[in-house]
Write a structure and sequence with these properties.
Blueprint lengths: L1 E2 L11 H9 L2 E12 L2 E12 L3 E5 L6 H8 L7 E6 L2 E2 L5 H8 L2 E4 L11 H12 L4 H14 L2 E2 L11 H13 L5 E5 L7 H18 L2 E5 L3 H7 L2 E6 L2 E7 H5 L4 H10 L17
Parallel strand pairs: 4-10, 4-11, 7-9, 9-10
Antiparallel strand pairs: 1-8, 2-3, 2-5, 5-6, 11-12
Helix pairs in contact: 4-5, 4-6, 5-6, 6-7
Length: about 280
């Protein structure tokens, strides 16, 4: 069993976002989406476009609706008003049997990795293939080993989840998320609970897979270091709307007071807002 180190590719040219800037094809769109749970209005006219081939990072405070946004993308939640469009198809009112088809376009890495504790690593990754395809056992074995190799895990197929480190569990969860070759990967707090070194390994893996698989990704995170490591753009969710959307450089230069406060509080050097007033000096 071994974990192959992932080279740091953050400084390398990334062709997929370059194509995105030219084509600007939306993969997922939120159009004036509203969602409440009892008296709490979580989404209040949310508008968002995630473009094909990009890594969109959704930032926001606890309880702001970031995970709710992911569930709406998957059709697991139905908005009270507004539309959700996936690849130019309005999925807002689709029946469950049609949503099943749409969900196959997505892979999901859950915050806890959500592995089945009673199954081996191989069985966990193979599970979607056995549930949703007619592949032979030989084809399943080949696909599982290929996806484990993509997340730089070797010799772990027969291990149980309890014997894995937190970072390895995340990698197995990611291998399972991509085993059906989705067009979009959703990451729910991918670095939560990990030490800084392991968290950066996961960040580098997100970048690596983005390049190799030519997918679109949405990353929900509180980890500002992770956001600025992997993201092409930020969508800042605040008071039920995507209050600010733009690139990392635009975020640092933004005049949005809530976003500036959010980034400044993180104390992450790469995310610190640019000084706007002559009176703002570094002591």
């Amino acid at each position: 069993m071994n974990e192959t180190p992932i080279p740091d590719r953050r400084a390398e040219s990334r062709a997929v976002p370059d194509r995105r800037r030219v084509l600007r094809e939306p993969f997922v769109e939120f159009e004036n989406v509203y969602k409440a749970y009892g008296p709490k209005q979580v989404l209040a006219g949310a508008n968002l476009k995630v473009y094909r081939g990009e890594v969109m990072v959704i930032l926001g405070g606890s309880g702001s609706g970031k995970s709710v946004t992911l569930r709406h993308m998957l059709g697991l939640e139905i908005p009270e008003a507004g539309r959700i469009v996936v690849e130019e198809e309005d999925i807002t009112d689709l029946p469950e049997e049609e949503l099943y088809r749409v969900r196959k376009k997505f892979g999901m890495l859950f915050q806890s990795a959500a592995l089945f504790d009673s199954m081996t690593v191989f069985e966990n990754v193979a599970f979607p293939l056995r549930e949703h395809t007619q592949m032979t056992e030989e084809e399943i074995e080949r696909a599982v080993r290929e996806k484990l190799e993509l997340v730089n895990l070797h010799g772990v197929e027969n291990l149980m989840p309890v014997s894995l480190s937190g970072g390895m569990r995340k990698r197995v969860g990611l291998a399972r998320a991509i085993v059906l070759d989705p067009k979009m990967i959703l990451y729910d707090e991918p670095t939560t609970g990990l030490d800084p070194i392991t968290a950066q390994v996961i960040n580098d893996l997100i970048i690596d897979l983005q390049s190799k698989l030519n997918v679109t990704s949405v990353v929900v995170t509180h980890d500002i270091q992770s956001a600025f490591s992997v993201g092409d753009r930020i969508a800042f969710l605040n008071h039920g709307t995507f209050e600010w959307i733009g690139t990392m450089d635009q975020a640092r230069a933004s005049d949005d007071n809530d976003l500036r406060a959010f980034l400044k509080a993180s104390a992450v050097a790469a995310a610190q807002p640019e000084m706007k007033q002559l009176g703002e000096t570094v002591s």
